[in-house]
Amino acid sequence: MEPMVVPVIFMVVTVLLSVALSLDCSGKQDGVYDEGCRSYTKCVNETAVVMFCKPYTAYNRDTYTCDDAFNVPPPCGTYRECSTLSDGAYPDIEMTCRSYYTCNRGKFFGHSLCPSRLVFNQELQVCDWTFNVSKPCGTLPATDLSMSIEEFMTL
Q1: Quick one: which H or E segment has residue 143?
Q2: Which residue of 105, 107, 122, 142 is surrounded by the most CB atoms within 10 Å?
Q3: Which residues constitute the signal peptide according to the record (predicted)?
Q4: Whose CA is closest to 102, among 87, 113, 114, 117?
């Protein structure tokens, strides 16, 4: 395993476990209560269970389970080319920046969803309110780190 992959995987697992531990399933019916592209959290007998998707699969919101990525609607089922991009996260412009994808050492690490009403802030590398984010994702004037949709589509 490459040196940079371990910290990224550790960070993702830590975040997902903290989400599962914070989900209180007491009194909730069995079902999915938290969704991501590579995992989801469901309540089973009032206990939170994190389900991870196998490689080349993604969470399918239509079937409430992991599925072949080709069967999953955007953004989770969409592959991105990262071979020419710097390490970091990039907004899914065509999804109005409500999700983003991660590249590390030229490899695509999948998509992540922003919480409701937030968009991806590329400058800060976090999901944020639109009034804090530069165009094209937010309402602030574009900065030198931002790009037009046309420029983004040529990457």
Answers
A1: none
A2: 122
A3: 1-22
A4: 87
